[in-house]
AraC family transcriptional regulator
Amino acid sequence: MQFSLRQYQAEAASHNHTDFHQIIISDLGLLEMEIEGRGGQVRGTKMAFVPAGDTHAYRAEGLNRFLVLDVDIAVAQRTGIEKLWRRNANASPYLQMAVGRQAVISDLFHVLSKTMRDGNQIRLPSRVGGCGAMIDDLTDEKGIVCDGLRRILSGTSAALVTSTNGSGLPGVLPSRLQRVLDWADVRMADPITVGDMAAVAVQSESSFFVSFQRYLGTTPMRWLTEQRLLAARQLLLGSDGPTSIGVLASQVGFTDQSAFSRAFSRRFGHPPIRMLRQSSNHVRDIN
């Protein structure tokens, strides 16, 4: 398996490759694609799976950076990556990651970016393993890249092809703000500051703050907190939800379990532990 972080040009290009599948995940920005005549986008938690042999065209405007993974056909079959793609996404070339998988993506970006920078032994984040790893170890069939892809694909579904932005309103956000929303969505589990978001928007903090309020009607951190709480609620409602409130808080970017519980209670009128117990009881009843 080969991997790279790539930037794409505004001028459209196309090609195909017959000996490997290609998985494309957004680190920053939006990639417009057409895979065997099917149009779609790679942005935020929307990714692409380009089957070997399929002709695909692509272009991107503005700041952009994408993780591109070339997965040998035989490796994809032996590791179950191809099977998960076919089963969960019905072999659609455009995939929507499930809520809660952002931490896996964020960790892959961290590990692979650091690997390409120094090429030495690195320390893996706790969410992908607690031991050192060499570059070659990352991409073999038992390495964290294959493991991460399996974890991501186990929670994907076919993505709806839409031009709607993260606010739910088509075409109303400037591209720099949409870039921030998509970027933050992938990093929901990470600590994010207004300064981080302003840097992605390529604006000063004050200009970014004013622009964000103008178009979103709220402050950047209030928006981020709302997204995290909505994600937490969705995880609690899922069949494979978290095992504890601490795990849940960490998955959606809260470093303080008590602060998370208070914020959740204010937003939804009841503590998250109630939903966790109800979910656990439901699973026991089914079993």
